[in-house]
Amino acid sequence: MVMRRPEMNHRKLFFFPLCLGVVSLLLAACAPAKIKVPPRVLTPPPSAKKYPLSGKSYLINDKRYHVLASAEGYAEEGEASWYGWDFHGKKTASGEPYNMNDLTAAHKILPLNTWVKVTNLINQREVTVKVNDRGPFVRERIIDLSYAGAKALGMVDPGTAPVRVEVLGAAEEKDIAGVRTAVLVPAANYREGRFAVQVGSFQDPANSEALAARLRREFGVVTIEEFDRGDAMFYRVRVSEVKSLGRAMELQAQLEEKGYRDCFVVAR
Prior knowledge:
Layout lengths: L4 H26 L9 E2 L11 E8 L2 E6 L6 E9 L20 E3 L7 E7 L5 E8 L7 E6 H7 L6 E17 L2 E7 L6 E11 L2 H15 L2 E7 L4 E12 H13 L6 E4 L1
Parallel strand pairs: 4-8, 5-7
Antiparallel strand pairs: 1-4, 2-3, 4-9, 5-8, 6-7, 6-9, 9-10, 11-13, 11-14, 12-13
């Protein structure tokens, strides 16, 4: 009996890690897989295949982002992240100081002060936040939530989550009973109004005149509008002025077919 004990201990030492390995594999198989949703803009309303741009843009890491003129009907799905202590108290793109305990968010192209509903696609939790900052400038991420927003969605610990973002309207301050109060105003309808298609923007007015002359031969009405950026004057070449977004998008498509690939619709 005494001689056999070492043999039995060796068997135990062999089978114990083997059992641990099997249990680990079973637990890994049962663990929920992390869901990742690629960024995509959901299908827009039938009357607008694209969203109008505001003409405002900014440059980050050598990439230019064009801000939407209207967020009406805008929705998208993708990955959300959050930011907190490192940015608390710092100025946001809207000029407001960032407060990680407020329900706010950063978005790359939605107009500032837009209210959006964000839904966590894993647990279906929802939160309404105001866009007051720009970002996230990380590939495949579509929105950066405040700490409070991330906490409401249950995504603080994982750090990211697949979400759906849906625009509700704009934040606007109004005087209610003598008190300045932020209220939600439904997003404006930009499908009807005044639209043009911007084809180019130059610092040299001669280049603008040359492009405008070429465009007038094919598209008729072309205007050159001055834009003072503060450090430089730009001359924007814009084609026509139409009264519906649909017609403006048709005009943009015609220009793209002629080789003007960088043109875009602007709402006046």
